[in-house]
Amino acid sequence: MEAGTITPAGERPNALRRSPAARLPDRLLRWGLTALSLGVIALIAYFFIRLLVESEPIFKHESVTDFLFSADWVPSKALYGAVPLIAGTLISSAIALVIGIPVAVATALYITELAPRRVRGPITLLVELLAAVPSVVYGLWGFFFLIPKLKPAEQWFADTFSFIPFVGGTVTGPNYFVAGLILAIMILPIASAISREVISTVPSEHKEAALALGATRWEMIRMAVLPYARGGIAGGAMLGLGRAIGETIAVTLVIGNAPVTGHSIFQQGYTLAAVIANEFGEAASDPTHRAALIAAGLVLFVLTLAVNGVARAFVIRAERGQRVARTPAAGMAG
Amino acid sequence: MTDPVPHTVRGEAPATPHAGGERVMPERFVSRTPVEPVAPGAPARAVRLERLNAWYGDMHSVKDLTLEFAPNQATALIGPSGSGKSTVVRCINRMHEEIPGARASGRVTLDGFDVYDSQVDVVAVRRSIGMVFQKPNPFPTMSIYDNVASGLRLTARRVGDEQVESALRGAGLWEEVKDRLRRPGIGLSGGQQQRLCIARALAVEPDVLLMDEPASALDPISTLKIEELVEELKTRVTIAIVTHNMQQAARVADQTAFMLDGELVEVGPTEKIFTNPDDPRTEEYVTGKFG
Amino acid sequence: MSSVAFAPISPRRRRVDRLARGTVAALTLLALIPLGLIVYYLLKQGLGAISLSFFTTDPSGSFLGDPGGIKSAIVGTVVMVALASVVAVPVGVGVAIWLVELGRETKLAHTVRYFIDVMTGVPSIVFGLFVYITLVLAGVGGSSFAGWKGSVALGLLMLPIVTRSAEVVLLLVPNQLREAAYALGAPRWKTIVRIVLPTALPGIVTGVLLAVARAAGETAPLLFTAAVVNATTVNLSDRMNSLPALIFQNVGQAQDRLVTIAWGAALTLVMMILVLTLLARLIQRRSRLS
Fold first, then answer.
1. Which residues contact C225 (CB under 8 A, 6 or more apart)?
2. Do the beta carbons of residue B233 and residue B210 sit within 8 Å?
3. pLDDT digit string (tens) for A14-66?
4. Contact, C153 vs C225, CB < 8 A?
5. What is the pLDDT at residue B27?
6. Separation in Å, CA of A159 to nearest CA in chain C
């Protein structure tokens, strides 16, 4: 404003208020996006309810405990016991964790602590590329390559170590072990990424403290890096578990789809996800069967919810722990 | 960082006690049965730096430095920020080379034995030369007891309670924590954490203790306690203490070295450095004209 | 001077150190072997199927004779993923904008974030099941299986991925930029559209590409929403073929030539996903943020 101009009181422009028209886009944006976000919540809730509703027929047919705890899944006889499915899901996922997590942590340690600097980028990229392979291709490879190639070795292992529980006995081509192995490969990228993340945030002061005490490199990792990172690593493992539980296509191609609980890890099995993919076709005409599959989907949904919830708790606690560890306790001097 | 080549040391460290004049390393892992600190007057080691040079990449941070740290004494390194004092101290226990791109040349000897000799294992060096850092860094997942024992556990399968107690007494912390040894180390106050780190370093019975601005992150009362500790400790270990606090140097150090821009400007008895230094730059610094 | 100096570190410690580090390196190598093997097998088995006609002919559906190509699968995948993106990307970015700019730390925002997190963990087959129940069984839109229903399932899959990555990127936009705009009197919507979004765009594009790559590879949700057909169609209300479904269908076949088709399709699919992934990483690296 130029000096000397004084707008008359009556015509003073109210520069501090915008016209309602000018505020409209902001309003629209706010309400639109809020509605969108609320819509997301509504959608999930709706789907959960629909799942419940559509699975009702099976629970008229047999009780919830029967569904969850009986061991016979024979649709042709209208028997729907989910035990082999749940067992298969847990067994294959457990194998995936046992094989996959140590390897994931090893890659994370190697990349952040041990590898020469120039190699770090390429190796990280290669590990990440494992995630680019779609599950159907993993299944394809597992079916045509892994299963035939592993069978002799599995047979040898089962015979030599038959005293270990769940190892001895006949070996089928598709089995829990192959499924677990493929799942291990599939969860590797995410478990490695999270482990890498936590390991690289270990403050160097702890590593220096260990080295200054006269620790070898590995001792330093054991003393200062791993204990610090273990919460985050556990969180990554849980996320991997969640992924393994829900994996459908790769598993169904290599696990054999036998609705029984095998006696050894080298025998065929079934999982919740695989049964849905395999049987929905024949279930199209049988409402009870269909409802059973939907109920299996519900169980799967709840399982992944639980596992991911635990994973998130771990990761949050790990982050909080890191923040606490960095600030010494306030209070008395000395 | 490239891995230091694993070394084999020629011969063995015999267990014979010091015969007159013969320089031999005493047996290292004798556990001391009395629970008081080691009797004063036990031999510590002289550290001598000869023509030490250190670089961070291309940056020449320590230039041709020759300096001796007398045994059973505290030597302070003072100087403005960036003068290279921390780097010097980190070269003594070979922590400098842990930084990617960093290197050093020259001789650093502990009683005549060159720390940088190709036959020497850097891990063994760091066992004999302990370090306390500027920011207290107890291991966050370990208890007080485990923190002190952590260095000991690297070499011995069993750690005696008396070793932990002795170290904590040596750091002046025993009375304050004796009832809560199993509590987490990070639950202590800043000053206590630093004394915990001192106890941890003392537990492995080093000959030399390097202290890199150990009290700069602490409140005045804790600082005073640390300084009292240095007075006590120098009777059993050789101490090199980096400090930017001149009053601190004046209080605790027998000998003071003044560094500027990576060079050693002057070294001498503390009193002389502060009251009657030879070099005009030293005089300017200690009278507060810069830095 | 003699070099007998510091007590030798016990050989056992040295051995443990070397063994441990060797094991870590070995396990890392082990982790990369499957990648090599898969690439090798894809090329070995799949290259043989690749030809121009492979891409331009539909699967014949016959068990004997010429198995045809994968044209309908490619078209189907592209069309369904495109439709899914057209819906999932604006919605996903919109929710992310709401979370970062408008909702922020409110209780509602926390709830929304929680639900998005939940969505990330839902297995893709459960999404397929949702869509099957709500759209196929209910006969919405006439015919039971349809390409657009497959898109819905894929879109549900993509949504949390897009939202999550967009949220991360939007949070990285320095607050000073927003404050500078507000200080100049810009209304919120303008700040978002003209300042925040353009800065965040490369990161958002990266997230979108990764979500697209993910959706292109999904099989399970399509099995009972879009089903599998052989003929090429762009009519989204018809059943549609897709690369993953085609591969899945042909795996169990005894016919060698069908298996080769599967490998060829797998190679094609992996190539597509690889291009998308590498493009995403490239854009990410060139972005000014992060």
1. C128, C131, C132, C135, C136, C145, C146, C149, C150, C152, C153
2. no
3. 566 667 677 777 888 888 888 888 888 888 888 888 888 888 887 777 777 77
4. yes
5. 36
6. 25
Of all residues in chain C, the one with the smallest CA distance to A109 is C24
Residue B161 identity (one-letter amino acid): D
Q: How much is the pLDDT for B33?
A: 34
Cβ atoms of A259 and A281 within 8 Å: the answer is no
Q: What is the pLDDT of residues B163-221, one digit of tens each?
A: 999 999 989 899 999 899 999 988 899 999 999 999 999 999 899 999 999 988 888 88
For A213, the closest of B126, B191, B222 (CB atoms) is B126
Count Cβ neighbours within 10 Å for each residue of B23-46 and write b for 16 or more, e otherwise.
eebbeeeeeeeeeebeeeeeebbb
CB pairs under 8 A between B and C: 60
Q: What are phi and psi of B235, to 5 degrees?
A: -70, -20
At residue C235 the predicted structure's pLDDT band, cuts being 50, 70 and 90, is confident
Q: Sign of the C-alpha dihedral, residues A246, A247, A248, A253?
A: negative
The average confidence (pLDDT) of chain A is 85
Kindly report the three-state secondary structure assignment for every residue of chain A: CCCCCCCCHHHCCCCCCCCHHHHHHHHHHHHHHHHHHHHHHHHHHHHHHHHHHHCHHHHHHCCHHHHHHCCCEEHHHCEECCHHHHHHHHHHHHHHHHHHHHHHHHHHHHHHHHCCHHHHHHHHHHHHHHHHCCHHHHHHHHHHHHHHHHHHHHHHHHHHCCCCCCCCCCCCCCCHHHHHHHHHHHHHHHHHHHHHHHHHCCCHHHHHHHHHCCCCHHHHHHHHHHHHHHHHHHHHHHHHHHHHHHCCHHHHHHCECCCCCCCCCCCCECCHHHHHHHHHHHHCCCHHHHHHHHHHHHHHHHHHHHHHHHHHHHHHHHHHHHHHHHCCECCCCC
* CA C271-C273-C275 angle, 5° bins: 70
Q: B114, C2: Cβ pair inside 8 Å?
A: no
B12's CB contacts (< 8 A; 6+ apart) are: C8
> Which pLDDT value is given to residue C149?
87
**Torsion of Cα atoms, A58 then A64 then A70 then A72, to 10°:** 10
Phi then psi for residue A70, to 5 deg, are: -95, 155
User: By the CB < 8 Å criterion, does A216 face chain C?
Assistant: yes
Please provide residue A307's backbone torsions phi and psi, each rounded to the nearest 5 degrees: -60, -45
**Angstrom distance (rounded) from CA B173 to CA C59:** 80
Residue with tokens 């972005």: C287
Lowest-pLDDT range, B120-124, B137-141, C272-276? Answer: B120-124
> How many Cα atoms are found within 13 Å in the side-chain-facing hemisphere of A260?
9
Residue spans of the domains in chain B: they are: 47-286
The domain made up of B47-286 has a fold known as Rossmann fold (3.40.50)
Per-residue model confidence (pLDDT) at position B291: 57
Structure tokens at B235: 């009777």
Q: Which residues on chain C are in Cβ contact (under 8 Å) with A245?
A: 123
Tell me, what's the pLDDT at B11?
A: 35
Token pair, residue B126, equals 């760091």
Tell me which residue of C86, C87, C88 sits closest to C162, measured CA to CA: C88
More confident residue, B25 or A123: A123
Q: Which residue has the higher pLDDT, B43 or C286?
A: C286
Q: Does A200 touch chain C (CB under 8 A)?
A: no
Please tell me the CATH code under which domain C80-243 is placed.
Answer: 1.10.3720.10
Q: Identify all chain B residues contacting A318, using CB atoms and an 8 Å cutoff.
A: none
Using CA coordinates, name the residue in chain B closest to C9. Answer: B124
Task: Give the nearest chain A residue to B184 (CA atoms).
Answer: A325
Sign of CA dihedral C50, C56, C57, C59: positive
CATH superfamily membership of A61-324: MetI-like (1.10.3720.10)
Assembly ipTM:
0.89
